[in-house]
Amino acid sequence: MHHTIDVRDLTFTYPDGRVALRGVSLFVAPGEKVALVGPNGAGKSTLMLHLNGILKGQGEVRVCGTRIEEGSIGEIRAAVGLVFQDPDDQLFSATVFDDVAFGPLYMGLPEEDIRSRVQHALEAVELNDYGDRVCHHLSGGEKKRVAIATVLSMDPEILVLDEPTAGLDPRARRSLIHLLHDLPQTMLVSTHDIPMVAELFERTVVIDEGEIVFDGSTQSLMADRNLLAQHGMEIP
């Protein structure tokens, strides 16, 4: 069985010379949901952007058994749904339907399939009747859900989410946690929301200064107050 996400000895340096990842290795099994935590600037977003080929460092990255290289980028991007922290980076069409239909349309699917994918994606995020709504009139929580629907319509095997609960009010946060709990995809979720991590993820990876400093059970991490404090995490 292949790992859904298989990162080996990944190093990445930005053009200004800042080293963002230092020999990171990470394996995620099919169906596993893993939290990625650590201070700002630790390398979380840099790592995520490697998982669908937006960035390319030294080392090896495989997704669903396929190595990320020039020829496989299209296949990889269909397999990995990347949801950015700010939904406005992801939503740019006039209506919710058009945004959610963008990926399947780009894949060249027939209209009937596109409509069915959009419907299923909106149902998955519990926004069934939102197709005709205008994106910039939505609340923050609704926008987050639509952003997730835009990647679900591509039927990805993996969801990679950057700070999904950031900026949400308590009710929107609660419904997003339920949504993430119920989705069947393999997930890697970068977050500062430690209570969500404790509730939702059995496994947590801590990254700091570009290195993985902990990879194991969330329960044992939450019990290790020194480690949490050392890496700048709010203790619930």
Folded structure, characterized:
The structure is a single chain. This protein is an alpha/beta fold and 236 residues long. The chain is 36% helix and 25% strand. Helix 3 runs parallel beside helix 5 (140-152) and helix 4 (111-124) crosses helix 5 (140-152). The chain starts with a strand and ends in a 6-residue tail after the last helix.
Q: What's the gist of this structure?
A:
Helix content is 36%, strand content 25%.
**Segments where pLDDT lies below 50 for 5+ residues?**
none
SSE-based structural type: alpha/beta
How many individual helices?
A: 9
Shape annotation = globular
Radius of gyration equals 18 Å
Q: What is the β-strand count?
A: 10
Strand count, sense and barrel status of the largest sheet are: 6 strands, mixed
Strand/helix succession: EEEHEEHEHHHEHEHEEHH
Helix content: 25-40%
Strand content: 25-35%
- For the termini, the CA-CA separation is 36 Å
Strand order of the largest sheet: 6-7-8-3-9-10
Mean pLDDT: 92
